[in-house]
Write a structure and sequence with these properties.
It is a single chain. The chain has one domain: Rossmann fold, CATH 3.40.50.300. It contains 7 helices and 5 strands; from the N terminus they run βαβαβααβααβα. It has a 5-stranded parallel sheet with strand order 2-3-1-4-5, with helices on both faces. It is globular, with a radius of gyration of 15 Å.
Length: about 160
């Protein structure tokens, strides 16, 4: 299997980290962006673009990179939790086109609401009233931008 760059997006509890843990091989790079990204100085869209460029450089050297959360998470969570995302929808669309031009795999993870809630609570985290909207925004985006996003529903994994 040749080296690849994967950006894995989705709401909390959709199985992003679990998917990456199961897919990554020894020597692959794992990047986990988180809720504190919005505190980084400068343009956050440029930060994520630079992260993708860095991953492409590693891919050219035969090393795969898995990015757990990126620009789309800032659009969704920034809008719902801070009212003002630091990556605009226009910037996110530009990054999607950049990914497509460079063969970066954009994977959108989904799961049923009840499964997401159970997973979040099993981790000891709080399920808040905005979580249903988070999942809905992601699903809507993945559907509207399907030419860029492959999607995977991890709900059946919870049932086994």
């Amino acid at each position: 299997m040749s080296a690849q760059v994967y950006v894995v997006e989705g709401a909390d509890g959709t199985g992003k980290s679990t998917f990456i843990q199961r897919m990554a091989r020894p020597g692959d790079r794992l990047i986990h962006n988180n809720a504190s990204d919005h505190l980084l100085p400068g343009s956050l869209a440029r930060h994520y673009r630079a992260q993708l460029l860095d991953a492409l450089d590693f891919r050219d050297r035969g090393i795969s990179t898995y990015i757990d959360r990126s620009f789309l998470s800032e659009v969704v969570y920034g809008r719902l939790y801070r009212g003002n995302p630091r990556v605009s929808l226009l910037q996110a669309h530009s990054l999607e086109r950049f990914a497509a031009r460079h063969g970066i795999v954009l994977l959108g993870m989904t799961a049923d609401l009840s499964v997401r809630r159970d997973r979040i609570r099993e981790r000891g985290e709080e399920w808040d009233r905005k979580q249903p909207f988070v999942g809905a925004f992601y699903s809507q985006h993945f559907g509207e931008r399907a030419r860029y996003w492959a999607t995977a529903d991890s709900t059946p994994a919870h049932e086994s």
